[in-house]
Write a structure and sequence with these properties.
96 residues; Substrate Binding Domain Of Dnak, Chain:A, Domain 2; two-stranded antiparallel sheet; 3 helices; 2 strands; elongated
Length: 96
């Protein structure tokens, strides 16, 4: 695997894992948006697992894509307001 692809895949895996640990669901239980938030979080977790599987199978391109898609689910949820996330740094695109 080229060094640039390895570095980018490592960075995106770390980004998704950290984003998952930082995104807190903010909407109340039993509301439609709570279900949305839970589904977004589950999609992100699934893509993290998929990306790790692809890495183990020596498929860095699909691993990188999975990590990117997973982060997109969390970032979209943060923009919708269903997750509380840090607004400083580069972990999310949301700024207040």
């Amino acid at each position: 695997m080229p060094a640039e692809l390895r570095e980018k895949t490592d960075r995106y895996e770390d980004l998704l894992a950290e984003a998952l640990s930082e995104a807190t669901i903010t909407v109340p239980e039993g509301t439609p948006l709570r279900s949305v938030a839970e589904e977004f979080r589950e999609m992100a977790r699934s893509y993290l697992e998929d990306g790790r599987h692809f890495r183990a199978e020596d498929d860095p391109v699909n691993a990188l894509a999975a990590f990117s898609y997973g982060h997109a689910w969390l970032d979209a949820g943060a923009r919708m307001g269903v997750f509380e996330v840090p607004t400083d740094g580069d972990l999310f695109t949301v700024r207040h």
